[in-house]
Amino acid sequence: MTDKRIALITGASRGLGALLADFLAAQGYDLVLTARGANALESVVTGLRKYGGTVLALPGDVADAAHRKTLVVTAQSLGGLDLLINNASDLG
User: If you write DSSP's letter for every residue of the chain in order, what string do you get?
Assistant: First the structure.
């Protein structure tokens, strides 16, 4: 059994999602991040490398069932999911 905690954050490319990703990475979480904007998402991942944990970025739309399944499979590959932050939206 591992002490590693895994979080999945949707809408992780900016704003609250990016802030939460930074906070959780600093707390030692491994992360699965998703957002529609691949370039902005990769920029967040680059900033999180300083924490040394695993950060997997999967650009896509959570409205797509196939993308949601990929997110679940990816989280399972890291050992399961301890925290889900469903932050994706069309606001702003």
Answer: -----EEEEESTTSHHHHHHHHHHHHTT-EEEEE-S-HHHHHHHHHHHGGG-S-EEE--S-TTSHHHHHHHHHHHHHTT--SEEEE------
